[in-house]
Amino acid sequence: MGSSSANDLTVGIMALVAQQEREAISRRTRESLAAAKARGVKLGNPNGAAALRRAGKGGTALQQAVRRNADAFAEDLLDVIIAIRAEGHTPLRAMAEQLNIRGIRARRGGRWHVSTVRNLLIRIERLEQTT
Description:
mainly alpha, 2 domains
């Protein structure tokens, strides 16, 4: 057994210990939040989005930045969508499957679903109408 295999073993054990600790922290956090809620503690941010909107601070700049990023993402995928449609994959489910097969991640890094493809197509259509 060489030194690299000993290192691999050590790293593997450390990864397992870290995973165990993450799970324990998660469990303790859930239990603590449940206990606090049972005591009547109001959980969450009292200055959340609804409070900010009521105060007239709706995060307009942030919303605009998110919209610009989503528009740019849709524009980047336009050629891929055109190619997928040209191959005959026109139902939303088929398009989602093709995007996943091609290894293209949805905007937030996840897999494509009917709803995410529909939202993408709506955004692309809206962008085409404004240009």
